[in-house]
Design goal:
Elements lengths: L6 E5 L4 H12 L4 E3 L11 H9 L5 E4 L7 H6 L1 H21 L4 E5 L28 H21 L2 E7 L1 E3 L12 H16 L3 H11 L10 E5 L5 E2 L1 E3 H12 L3 H6 L8 E3 L5 E2 H12 L4 E5 L8 E2 L4 H5 L8 H15 L1
Parallel strand pairs: 1-2, 1-3, 3-4, 4-5, 5-10, 6-9, 7-12, 8-13
Antiparallel strand pairs: 8-11
Length: 340
């Protein structure tokens, strides 16, 4: 077990996952949680990261810092997605080793797996096929992070662990329609369409000031959803991934090694349940209270047909996700409305 007074550095503490991890650590009684704003520490700057680790006594690092986004952002900024993420993880992991940090939790993504691999996706399916083209640069960067952790463990005997969550959502999510993921984007679209149907232009303007320009037509009678609606996705509420981080952080090293493989040391984290984008849209529409139609824009890409993680390894140790998709969306929508 990790001592409650251990010095824990959470990289990316202001993001969706990072902020939830900080909350979870505090709820579990950890008192020495170190965080840094970007203006204080640029994780892409090797020299700055080197100096930071030399000046700190850190016991554990949780790497939640990353450049993330949906299909549109991945298509528009592929160079940024691969370069930024490679630099962040490489700098942190290498300088952690150089300064004697033995424990790391690295957060990856389910997009590391091949586009057309068998479902549900087992950890050992990594690198067995071609990646989904729309997020290949991001996926390659995350695969590199996994292999960095594996390689340092093999060569130096460190205890660097990688966890692969499926689609995360929750409070502090990104609702900018230019670069958000599908779930928050749909919440915002349906909410704005509801406001439009009620003729509440003032609230729409307030929403734009808070969460960025709408950048597309918002109708009071319908909402357009990208793709056919047929792709299946698994969604994990962010407080569940935070709880999984703390659980795996405290897992005995022998126990961890028993349920991983020598060349497959990462662990899937998810609910084990998926739904179609059409079903997701209908759930959000109902929770938001939008009465109009849902139109699927088949000129837009679908992405991977299905992404359902096999979470049997983690479940076998006694950890399971606890927040249902309906409960999670209600929490997020409440937070979103209070912010705009």
């Amino acid at each position: 077990m990790i001592e409650k007074n251990a010095n824990i550095f959470v990289a990316g503490h202001r993001g969706l996952a990072g902020s939830a991890i900080v909350r979870s650590l505090k709820n579990h009684g950890y008192t020495n949680i170190l965080t840094k704003m970007h203006k204080e520490l640029d994780l892409m700057d090797q020299s700055s990261v080197r100096i930071f680790f030399k000046n700190q006594k850190i016991d554990i690092i949780i790497i939640a810092a990353a450049k993330v986004g949906g299909i549109l952002a991945n298509n528009n900024y592929p160079a940024e997605f691969i370069y930024n993420n490679l630099m962040i993880e490489s700098n942190i992991i290498h300088e952690a080793y150089n300064n004697g940090v033995q424990h790391i939790i690295f957060l990856g993504s389910s997009c590391i797996y091949p586009k057309n691999c068998n479902q549900p996706i087992k950890e050992e399916y990594l690198l067995t096929g071609l990646l989904e083209a729309t997020n290949e640069p991001y996926a390659i960067a995350k695969i590199a992070g996994i292999k960095l952790c594996e390689s340092y463990n093999r060569q130096y005997g460190t205890n660097y662990r990688s966890i692969m969550p499926n689609n995360l959502y929750g409070i502090n999510d990104n609702f900018d329609l230019q670069n958000s993921h599908v779930l928050p984007a749909l919440i915002r679209k349906f909410h704005l369409a509801k406001l439009k149907s009620l003729g509440n232009e003032e609230k729409i303007k307030t929403d734009e000031k808070t969460f960025g320009p709408i950048r597309e037509e918002i109708s009071g009678s319908y909402v357009k959803v990208w793709g056919t609606g047929s792709p299946r996705r698994e969604f994990l509420y962010v407080d569940d991934i935070a709880d999984a981080c703390v659980f795996l952080m405290n897992l005995d090293n022998d126990a961890y090694k028993k349920f991983t493989l020598p060349m497959c040391s990462h662990v899937n984290v998810g609910t084990g349940v998926d739904i179609t984008i059409k079903e997701l849209s209908e759930i959000i529409s109902s929770i938001v209270g939008f009465k109009g139609d849902i139109i699927f824009d088949i000129t837009k890409p679908d992405g991977t047909p299905q992404k359902l993680l096999d979470v049997s390894r983690l479940n076998s140790l006694g950890w399971k996700a606890t927040i249902s998709i309906e409960e999670g969306i209600k929490k997020v929508y409440k937070w979103y409305v209070e912010k705009c």
